Structures are given as C-alpha cells and as structure tokens.
C-alpha cells in the first residue's frame, strides 16, 4: 500500500539505503538530478546526508513515498530564506524508482508536497525540469504552467547541453511562514 510522508527526522538505516538506491536508479534511468553519471554509493550517501541536514535546518522539506515499506519515490521542497520570497517554494528532485513508475506515484508525491505548501500558506511553487522528460508530463498533469525554456541548461550524461523548462503553479491562500 502506498504511503507518502514527510521525513522530519533522520530515517532508518534501511530507508536511508533505499534513498541512496533511488538516487542511483534515477540517474541510471537518464534523469537530470544534478549528476552526469550514476553517483557512487558514497556520493549518494553524502548527497542524502546534505539533504537531511537542510531538512534539519528548516531549509527544505523531504517527502518520501513507500510501497509496502519500500522506498518508491521522493520529492523535495526548497524554502527561500529571504523575507520577500517566503510566499513561494521550489520543487526539486522528483524521483520515482524505475520499478514503481507508471503507477501515479509521481503525481501523488507532487500532490502531497502541494498540500503541505498550501497548508503553510505558500502561494507559488516553481521548478525547473529537463525538457521532454517524463517528469515534465507529471508537472503538466498537475496543473503547472510553463513559463519558458532555457536552452543549454543541463549537461546530460552524454555530455551534451540540453534544455530546461521552467514551470510554476499558483496555490490559493495567504502568504505565510514556514
């Protein structure tokens, strides 16, 4: 059974290992998540440690989808530190493990993040995504509008520079604090 929850404290060693595998699987599948090659286990552990430290500092939120207690996906919400931007958040790193794709998990993760953001009074969500990627279609189906495309934004695993699309979605509610 699918469960989506926000991680607010360090995960179990088992879940941490599954997050490492999730990142490696996502990059191996060609997603542009900041890597041009599949990260080593050490690099992936360091990445998730940095994410969890940012969660602890209140700079980001991390939502994890599990299916029968196995990590199926994750998404992050980066929260701007400046007073004039606290009405918005940036969606980052939507990842769904290849064994769990085409089951609506990406949409469910986006919805969970949006519900959190709306409850906290955020009124605008923004993101950048590899143009033409499966994740882009998830965001379009979730009601995000494309503000434009930037050519040569990402370096792909093949070494080529590829375009990113910038999306946004307005949420109802008053600007709040998080």
CATH homology superfamily of one domain: Gcn5-related N-acetyltransferase (GNAT)
How big a fraction of the residues is strand? 25-35%
**Backbone shape:** globular
What fraction, in percent, of the residue positions are helical?
25-40%
Unreliable segments (pLDDT under 50, ≥5 consecutive)?
A: none
CATH class of one domain: Alpha Beta
CATH architectural label of one domain: 3-Layer(aba) Sandwich
How would you spell out the order of helices and strands? EHHEEEHEHEE
CATH topology of one domain: Aminopeptidase
Tally of strands:
7
The oligomerization state is: single chain
**What separation lies between the terminal Cα atoms?**
30 Å
Give the overall pLDDT as a whole number: 92
- Alpha-carbon Rg, integer: 16 Å
Please state the structural category.
alpha+beta
In spatial order, strands of the major sheet run 1-2-3-4-5-7-6
Q: Biggest sheet, open or closed, and with what strands and sense?
A: 7 strands, mixed
